[in-house]
Amino acid sequence: MSKRIRKRGFMVRAQVGPGWPYQEQALFMRRWEDYLAERELFWSGALGASVVWAEDRDLEPADQVDLLLWLLDQPLVRSVSLSQLDERIDEPETLRALPVVHARFGDLTVIPLVWLYQARRIDARQFIEILGGHTCAAQVH
Q: N or C: which end of the chain has fewer CB within 10 A?
C-alpha cells in the first residue's frame, strides 16, 4: 500500500456581498473554476470555506497572493481570508487552527500593495506580511 504524498495547500474564504442574482453567482463560480483550472489548481468545499491545492507541486505564497488579488477584483467578493500554507489541509481540525490573513475590497492598504507587487518591488511573502501576516485562527463553520 502506497502512502499518499501530501502537498502544501491553503484554505480560502471569500465573502460575497448580499443581493447578487443567481445568474451572477453562477458566472462567478464558472470564472472561479476557470481561474483554478488554468493554473492546474484543485479545490474542495464551498466558496465560504474552500481548500486549494495542486496535485504535482507545493503551493507558494505567490499562488495565494495571485488568488487573493483575483478574488478581490471580482464584483461579488467583499473580503477574502487565506490560511497559511500547510500540508494537512485535508484535516478539518487543522483548518480550524490555521492562522489566516484578511483583505477587504476597497481597503486603502491593499491598493498600494497591489501596485508594489505588480511592479515586483515586493514579493508574495512580503505582501502577506505587510497585510498583517497569518495572525489569527481561521473560523470555519
A: N
